[in-house]
Design goal:
With about 375 residues, the protein is an alpha+beta fold. It is built from 10 helices and 15 strands. Helix 2 runs antiparallel to helix 3. The termini are far apart.
Length: about 375
Amino acid sequence: MATKRDYYEVLGVNRDADEEAIKKAYRRLAMKHHPDRNAGDKTAEDKFKEAKEAYEMLSDADKRAAYDRHGHAGVDPSAGAAGMGGFGDAFGDIFGDIFGQQRGGGGRSSVYRGADLRYNLEITLEQAARGTETKIRIPTQQPCTTCSGTGAKAGTKPVTCTTCQGHGQVRMQQGFFSVQQTCPKCHGTGKTIADACGTCHGAGRVKSNKTLSVKIPAGVDEGDRIRLAGEGEPGVNGGPTGDLYVQLQVKAHGVFQRDGDHLHCEMPVSFTIAALGGDIAIPTLDGTATLKIPAETQSGKVFRLRGKGIKGVRSHAVGDLHCHVVVETPVNLTEHQKELMREFEAISSKDRERHNPKSKSWFDKVKEFFEP
């Protein structure tokens, strides 16, 4: 059976997201993957169900608290122990019943790996291209210092769960076989708390914040993830700590648009330079470059500057910068400028086929279209 994904990961929100952010994320996914909009698409249907389950758990304060404390085991009473351990215990219980073997109250309780965390980090295009190192502050769960992580009030300690007798799991006899499930009372810990700690309210952990340094390699792109091993939620009953995944989001740039390793930009060119030619300064990520515009350049012409793009994380060469010419129509003309423009138009119209070949060709096609 496939391992369930972290609910926060499913909705694409940070672990400290408020109710409104969770609702907004769910609505977006529900609209995208709803079966009515994706008829016959099994993948979309599965994603819709996954998002619905995540929302139902995280939108309920009690269920969310239980999930934050114990992961999926806290909200799914049928969840077994992590990894092969759960199967091994169930297998042992079956043959233990057959041969009369009993496990005492000191049996091993369920061990769970801590949940993975996701952090959405927004960076600039320049940072993505050159790489950077930044610090992030994330919410986390830390062992309660008041009770030393036991969850019990000072002077007391957790006691063996009376439902599972400390095993962390309960067995349901079904004929010859014994089916094992996580104990619904202690959530697999094997212990219960009669008098809870006033600081952590029995959880053994408290919400905290920690600051981490994240090194972003040069060439990363939108959607890339950086894994910080062991920086996720602490495990349960000595289980391993989860990981933190930093999801990168690149801010929209005022000049450039990225396409893989290549960059694109619109290059406004004046009417006179487009007609007569000239040199213009072009911005790049490395500074300014000079581009020679030949005479009679038309709007839409693309000039390529080799090696002025981005070298991706998995690339062997630097991409190019593609400059798209946009011939700019003059505005706010003076009367003298308008008069000169009228004079220019009058001269050009006398030999339009020579001066405006595209316009002449277009009008000829229009004429053919309307004439039978």
